[in-house]
Amino acid sequence: MASAHKPISTILNVLQTILSVILAGISIWFFIELKSLTDLRNRDRYLLDFSVYWPQVLPWIFFVISVFVICVSLCGIYGACSGRKAAVITYITFLSIVIVAAFAAGVMGLVCGDTKSTDDFVSETVRDAYSQMKVRKDIIVAFGKLESRLRCCGTSGASDYTSGKIPDSCCDKNELVECENSASRRLGCVEVVVPYSRMFIRYTSIGSIAIAVVCLASLIVAILLLRSSRSKKDRLKSEAEKEPLKLPL
Q1: Residue range 76-109, pLDDT digits in tens
Q2: Residues 6+ apart with CB under 8 A from 11
Q3: CA 72 distance to own-chain centroid
Q4: How far is residue 153 from each of residues 33, 110, 123, 131, measured CA to CA in Å?
Q5: Which of 1, 146, 149, 184 has its CA 20 to 30 A from that of 97?
Q6: What's the chain's Rg over C-alpha atoms?
Q7: CB neighbours of 197 closer than 8 A, spacing ≥ 6?
């Protein structure tokens, strides 16, 4: 029975490693995207703002958990292949911690991060970045890149540029229609960034819970593997004790 547990344990560890790599990659991507946006804000206004916002914290939480899961999974693969009791016990101990941490992070993301406070933080950040274009020329280029990348225009739409010319970042260069017509079909960046932020928090939280479920299955298999190895040793010991002692003639 132990021979069946080993490949199952290896497959589950590989699966949770793949899921963790994906979660870590998405977390890094979102943090970079969010930082590129928060860097456009009024620095003097947020100089003394030491508040912690969930969209800024959750990517780090998910990243740390992902790295932890990867390390524990490698330990699990080694324990399953080598069959060493100490490695399996160490794996079970740390895997139990991982399960609690991943599940708690997922629930925390859904309860605390997927809320209106995230919408307020992200929308205020976008509006503040847009307002900085009037005083900082470098923000014009950076915000234009944001508009091109997310296919949005202004904060609430092309109507934000009524006082001046609509920038090329709001236009679709591949279309033959005029820039004003192309920009008028785009949503404001607030209407785009806010749902994207919510989507990231929701999906990564569900991903963290999914990793916890896979780790729970790995924990059950690891316990069965440990018990089967112990029973095998007990059986061999019992058979050895039952053998009659052969004395030399």
Answers
A1: 888 777 777 888 888 999 999 999 999 999 999 9
A2: none
A3: 17
A4: 17, 29, 14, 14
A5: 1
A6: 27
A7: 34, 55, 118, 119, 122
Q: What is the distance between the alpha carbons of residues 94 and 72, in angstroms, rounded to a whole number?
A: 7
Tell me how far apart the alpha carbons of residues 55 and 122 are, in angstroms, rounded to a whole number.
8
Is 59 in contact with 201 (CB distance < 8 Å)? no
Name the residue with tokens 């709001």. 170
82-116 in b/e form (b: 16+ CB < 10 A) is eeeeebbebbbebbeebbebbbebbebbbeebbee
Kindly state the tokens that stand for 217.
């299955």
> Rounded to 5 degrees, what angle do the CA atoms 241, 243, 247 make?
110
Q: What is the pLDDT of residues 185-209, one digit of tens each?
A: 889 999 999 999 999 999 999 999 9
Give the list of residues 6+ apart from residue 125 with CB closer than 8 angstroms, or none. Answer: 37, 38, 41
Q: What is the pLDDT of residue 245?
A: 44
The whole-angstrom separation of Cα 144 and Cα 75 is 46
Is pLDDT of 7 > 50? yes
Specify the pLDDT at position 185.
85
Give the CA count within 13 Å in the CB-facing half-sphere of 77. 14
Query: Residue 167 corresponds to which tokens in the numbers above?
Result: 């920038």
For residue 210 the two structure tokens come to 């999914």
Angle of CA points 29, 38, 173, to nearest 5°: 70
Neighbour count for residue 151 (Cβ, 10 Å): 14
SS3 218: helix
State the average pLDDT for the chain. Answer: 84
Q: How many residues does the chain have?
A: 249
